[in-house]
Specification:
The structure is a single chain. The protein is mainly β. It is about 10% helix and about 50% strand. It has 14 helices and 47 strands. The protein has a 22-stranded antiparallel barrel. Strands 5-1-2-10-9 form a five-stranded mixed β-sheet. A hairpin with a 2-residue loop joins strand 43 and strand 44. It is globular. It starts with a helix and ends with a strand.
């Protein structure tokens, strides 16, 4: 009974539950004989029933009559239960019953580790009986073996553990499994070990050999392959630019804190603006002080209107990895003056059938009503011959967002916040690998987002001083056109041929449609822009194609060349609602009576021709360079502005060349130096000009001074270091543009573009260190500054904090506490910035703040439990975007999220 006494109450209950499944004679006499008669009996009563209710306890048959069930009289059967061989006589008391169950399990009474020439032997000693053959699986660097019908009964305690018992072996752990059985975990130093199982003198022996990393595995771990920087597969160490890659594993980790992609990028990508905390618009999250172009599998989804909804176009469950090129590039066309964010979607599994299920919940620990959120995901993936597929359905049901003080934060519905939003995402990819060279692939994604009705608490405006924006629910609201909703549909057909007349061909055709009725209607009476009760909408459609060939010219020389075309159609109408009905219903009923034009229907065509040369003159030196010709045309028909001003339509045409050149030199086996000159090309957001035309504007061609494209030229130098367990990078950049774009708030609160010479410069650094077998730490640093010359008189002034965010410092420490259990603590420090305020550019200075998050990942069988705590210290803070916008209007003074717990479970079938 020693092992039984060592078990806790929960383990005893588990053993009892397992015993119910054995179907022994004791169970039948106790379970069926007592199930409807007495809910709880003592040992004496059990003994009495054990002798009276069974005619022949020595036989395998039970012929006693069964009591009547609550649902009616059961038919009598002769039951022949199975019985373990070592249960010669059934128990007549609960104590005897538990003892027999314990005796049915093989006890492991000792664990010995013996070094061998090839590694290590683990000997599991038993008092009597043979241990069953264990089942094994590999999780990370750990090999685990689970032994059923066994229990660990060591004299010194319930668990055996030894660190570093042999070279290549970091840890051996033997412990009882909570739901029964024994688990042996063997963690390798760099790779998972291998083991053979045998028996010796009644003991179970595991002969362990440390895992050996192949050269290919070592290269894969040390060098990441990226496609975004050069439009071809390229080792990241050969790219003369600053590149960040977020893998699926890193993304899963950060999603435990926030499922907002803008927040994920803001935490870990150097040079990208800090998280805004509550919305999904990236309008005030610049990349090196300029706009980033967002792609999905190479398809551009950044719209010219500039609403910043790109990262709210698909669910993170559909993402395989994200590649970010920091700094301007023209390789993918216009709009990438700050860099490129390429979201690469999931690929089909190589297995015949693979299923992944995920369920999770989010709880605001400071919130009140609607503090719960939940998510569901199901993925089915597989391969059959040349055909492979991946389908994912995901749904989120988000409650409110609450700050550290417990107040429900107010976010304009049009800002794409996760607050009180229900989302559905359907993703599908099918692929045909006709042979080793040819592949045809179709990807489709549909995203839907719906929000509940909330408004700004009137007490915020009534209270003196700047207050945090708080939300109140609008009950019984009735809106023609429905509550705020957005839909995004993306289709992408691609074909690849690895050897077409000696060249590698990639072709792509795509279509995207996006629409939204962005917000709750606003009472804009008195606003010279509308003077009505209105709600804006947005319809946006795009189609295009890409064609490229990578032609080898020599063993160390290749030429990439091709063409891109895209057409974008967009409009922003607005609905006008009946003011009488609105007033009589206390602002709860909105009856549409008319429509108007905020941004007129327009067509934007973009054609690009490009060529790129890659040359490796020596083993340690690489050169690259290229040019792109960009031709952009914009057309709009005659229209009337929202305040009644007639405008004559017309056509605008622009073209230019953008160049790039870069080099990488491997100074040593561990240190590489890189330098580049790169140009980006973009046109301003035409919609921002057309919605509130400048003074004297009567036709589209009158706006040439503010609609001219900008070309950004950036100079960058950097160094990368890669040693055993340490990876570092350091880069400095300086970019300029003769017609930079910044925004000033104009009539009706709309931000209008202003053109002036600009210069932006900064420094970025990263470090990641594996300090020991179980500890890892690292972080990143970003600092940038910028000025422009609005009067073009040679006197440069600071750019606003809406463009240049303060310095950002992130740091983390991560520990593999046990095999399969990892814990991470991370902190984000955002500094202060008052330079633009001192120059009378910003209305308010930016104050510094710090946010601490906690993440834990636990492997349980085939599944993983992810736990995250956002804002662990429950700090009341205001993100940079909130502080900057609060200078214009108090409704934008949105506090960051308070302490929030996330729990997700993902399992592979």
């Amino acid at each position: 009974m020693r092992c039984l006494e060592m078990m806790g109450e929960s383990q005893q209950l588990i053993l009892m539950a397992k015993a119910l499944m054995l179907g022994t004679a004791s169970f039948v006499s106790l379970g069926l004989g007592l199930g409807w008669a007495t809910p709880a009996l003592g040992n004496e009563e059990v003994e009495a029933l054990g002798s009276e209710g069974v005619e022949d306890l020595g036989s395998n048959e039970i012929a006693s009559p069964l009591p009547e069930s609550p649902a009616g009289r059961l038919r009598q059967h002769s039951i022949t239960p199975s019985r373990p061989a070592d249960l010669e006589q059934p128990a007549t008391t609960v104590v005897e019953w538990m003892a027999q169950i314990e005796a049915a399990q093989v006890q492991i009474t000792g664990v010995r580790l013996e070094p061998t020439e090839t590694g290590l032997s683990i000997v599991l000693e038993t008092a009597e009986g043979d241990l069953p053959t264990p089942t094994t699986q590999t999780v990370g660097n750990a090999l685990t073996a689970e032994i059923p019908n066994a229990v660990l009964a060591l004299p010194e305690g319930e668990m055996f553990e030894q660190f570093g018992p042999a070279e290549g072996i970091a840890l051996v752990n033997v412990m009882n499994i909570p739901d029964g059985g024994v688990r042996v975990s063997i963690t390798g130093t760099d790779t998972p070990p291998q083991a053979e199982v045998s028996t010796e003198a009644g003991n179970l022996v595991m002969s362990v050999v440390p895992g050996m990393a192949t050269a290919a595995d070592a290269d894969e771990d040390a060098i990441q392959v990226v496609v975004t920087a050069t439009r071809t597969e390229e080792e990241i160490t050969d790219v003369p630019r600053s590149v960040t890659v977020i893998t699926r594993e890193e993304l899963e980790q950060q999603l435990s804190v926030s499922r907002n992609l803008g927040d994920v990028l803001g935490r870990i990508v150097p040079g990208f603006g800090p998280p805004n905390g509550i919305g999904s618009s990236i309008s005030f999250q610049s990349l090196r002080g300029r706009d980033a172009s967002v792609l999905i599998d190479g398809v551009p989804i950044s719209e010219n209107v500039g609403l910043g909804r790109e990262l709210r176009s698909l669910d993170p469950a559909a993402i395989e990895r994200i590649e970010i090129v920091r700094g301007p590039t023209a390789l993918y066309g216009g709009e990438a003056t700050g860099g490129v964010i390429n979201i690469i979607t999931r690929q089909p599994s190589n297995e015949r059938l693979s299923l992944t299920s995920e369920v999770g919940g989010v709880l605001s620990l400071t919130g009140g009503e609607d503090k719960w959120s939940s998510l569901l995901r199901q993925t089915i993936s597989g391969r059959e011959g040349i055909f492979s597929y991946d389908f994912t359905a995901a749904a989120e049901f988000n409650g409110g967002i609450f700050d550290a003080n417990g107040d429900r934060v107010f976010v304009l519905a049009g800002d794409g916040s996760l607050s009180d939003a229900d989302t559905v995402n359907l993703f599908g990819k099918i692929r045909f690998d006709f042979d080793d060279n040819q592949r045809l692939q179709l990807t489709a994604n549909y995203f839907n987002d719906r929000r509940e009705a909330f408004s700004l608490d009137p007490a915020v405006a009534a209270t003196p001083g700047t207050q945090a924006a708080r939300a109140i629910r609008l009950d019984d609201i009735d809106i023609d056109g429905g509550l705020p909703e957005r839909n995004n549909t993306l289709l992408n057909l691609s074909y690849a041929h690895a050897d077409l007349l000696g060249s590698e061909l990639q072709a792509q055709a795509y279509y995207r449609y996006y629409d939204e009725n962005g917000a709750i209607p606003n009472d804009e009476r008195g606003n010279p822009l509308f003077d009505n009760i209105v709600r804006t909408q947005w319809n946006w459609e795009q189609w295009g194609g890409r064609l490229q060939l990578n032609t080898p010219l020599a063993e160390t020389l290749s030429l990439l060349w091709g063409a891109d075309f895209a057409q974008e159609r967009s409009e922003l109408p607005f609905d006008i609602f009946d003011p009488v009905v609105f007033d009589s219903s206390d602002g709860r009923t909105f009856r549409r009576i008319d429509t108007g034009t905020f941004v007129p229907p327009s067509v934007l065509d973009e054609l690009g021709l490009f060529t790129q040369l890659q040359w490796q003159p020596t083993e340690r030196w690489q050169l690259s360079g290229g040019v792109r010709y960009e031709n952009i045309s914009f057309s709009v028909d005659d229209y009337t502005t929202s305040n009644g001003q007639p405008i004559q339509g017309g056509n605008l045409n622009f073209d230019d060349f953008a160049f790039n050149v870069g080099t990488v030199f491997d100074a040593t086996d561990n240190i590489s130096l890189f330098a580049s000159l790169a140009q980006g090309f973009s046109v301003p957001a035409f919609g921002r000009v057309l919605q509130v035309p400048p003074t004297g504007f009567e036709q589209v061609t009158d706006a040439l001074d503010v609609t001219q494209p900008q070309k950004v030229t950036e100079y960058e130098i950097g160094v990368r270091g890669d040693w055993d367990g340490v990876q570092t990078s350091l880069a400095a950049f300086y970019n300029t543009s003769d017609l930079g774009t910044f925004f000033e708030r104009g009539v009706g609160g709309v931000f209008l573009p202003v053109r002036a010479p600009e210069r932006i410069y900064g420094v970025e650094a990263t470090v990641d260190t594996q300090v020991s077998e179980f500890w890892r730490l690292g972080g990143s640093f970003s600092w940038s500054e910028g000025e422009n010359d609005p009067l073009e008189d040679g006197n440069f002034v600071a750019l606003s904090s809406g463009t240049i965010q303060p310095f950002k410092l992130s740091a983390y420490v991560e520990n593999e506490t046990l095999p399969g259990w990892t814990n991470r603590l991370q902190v984000l420090w955002v500094g202060s910035r008052d330079r633009a305020f001192d120059a009378d550019v910003d209305f308010v200075p930016i104050d510094s703040y710090a946010v601490v998050d906690y993440i834990s990942s636990i492997t349980v069988g085939r599944g993983v439990i992810q736990i995250g705590i956002e804002n662990l210290l429950n700090t009341q803070y205001f993100p940079v975007a909130s502080q900057f916008l609060a200078g214009f209007d108090e409704q934008f003074n949105v506090a960051g999220r308070g302490r929030t717990v996330s729990l997700r479970y993902q399992v592979d079938w």
